[in-house]
Amino acid sequence: MSDDHDDSAIAAQVRDLEAVLEEKGLLDPRELDQVLEAFAAKSSPANGFRVVARAWTDDGFRTRLLDDANEALPELGLSMGGGLQPQVLHVVENTADVHNVVVCTLCSCYPLSLLGPSPTWYKSPAYRSKVVSHPREVLEQFGLTLPESTRIEVWDANAESRYMVLPRRPDGTQELTEAELAGLVTRNGLIGTAAV
Amino acid sequence: MPRTNDVGGLDGFGPVVEELDEPPFHHDWEAHVMAMNRALIGQKVYNLDEFRDAVERTMSHESSYYENWFRAIRTLLKEKGVV
């Protein structure tokens, strides 16, 4: 992380470039707020939590989601559109034998609309380099220790394809409503660095 | 030869550090860089693939994520004769 001095320097450089681009008519000062509002409105992990809760309570939806997530999302009023380019979403399901985890080794590809803004660790070279070679070790750093018998599958996202993990429904949650189930899910659970 | 950004399977980047309750942006200028990039792509000054390529060929692991974005934007604007 940069220190305060570096940040004030780069902040000034960003302002200077904005001024030049505004002068050239390439940037509208009002656009910043609009872009940020749209970004915040469209990107929330609550969307991913809803998808998981529906999949846990509706087997038909779960099957459609795993088969073609882009086709299934509109059932919840969600979509993978709205970004800078269309993306294919693959939902990968955790089972008693398999645990899935998602990475983008080349950069930071991530289903923003379902998971919200990505955390710095997801974009860090430490995570991106290591989770493909030592996934078990990385998951332990997140406090997730899996039985030796569990196979770990690592999914590498790219410009056209995004992944989301469907965690296993916790035991003893039969009585919970769909909304209550959504409340159990975490952002890291959707990436695969947490169990749920 | 793989580019600098292609880190899958490499060693030496240390442990994964998780920041709890992390905000979407740590500094105001980072939000400005993100919005500037969307605006420039929207204005067709460059496209998303060109931006990705620019990040990949100019990035440094010493720089933060949005510092790398800003370097890529400046590189593209210079190469395209915009500034």
Number of domains of chain A: 2
CATH architecture tag of the largest domain in chain A: Alpha-Beta Complex
Give the CATH class of the largest domain in chain A. Answer: Alpha Beta
The CATH superfamily of the largest domain in chain A bears the name Nitrile hydratase alpha /Thiocyanate hydrolase gamma
Chain pair forming the biggest interface: A-B, 50 and 49 residues
Pfam family, one (chain A): NHase_alpha
GO molecular function (chain A): catalytic activity; transition metal ion binding
InterPro entries (chain A): CN_Hdrase_a/SCN_Hdrase_g_sf, CN_Hdrtase_a/SCN_Hdrlase_g
Domain Nitrile hydratase alpha/Thiocyanate hydrolase gamma (chain A): 9-194
Q: What is the structure about, briefly put?
A:
Chain A contains eleven helices and four strands. Chain A is α/β, with parallel strands linked by helices.
Please describe what this structure looks like.
The complex is a heterodimer of chains A (196) and B (83). With 196 residues, chain A is of the alpha/beta class. Helices cover 47% and strands 12% of the residues of chain A. The longest helix of chain A has 20 residues, at 4-23. The mean pLDDT of chain A is 93. The mean pLDDT of chain B is 93. Chain B starts with 27 loop residues before the first helix and ends with a helix. In chain B, 49% of the residues lie in helices and 0% in strands.
Itemize the secondary structure elements and their pairings.
The complex is a heterodimer of chains A (196) and B (83).
Chain A: H1 4-23, H2 31-42, H3 45-57, H4 59-67, H5 69-72, E1 88-93, E2 98-103, H6 112-115, H7 120-123, H8 125-133, H9 135-141, E3 151-156, E4 161-166, H10 178-182, H11 187-191
Parallel strand pairs in A: 1-4, 2-3
Helix pairs in contact in A: 3-4, 8-9
Chain B: H1 28-42, H2 48-58, H3 65-79
GO molecular function (chain A): catalytic activity; transition metal ion binding
Protein name (chain A): Nitrile hydratase
Domain Nitrile hydratase alpha/Thiocyanate hydrolase gamma (chain A): 9-194
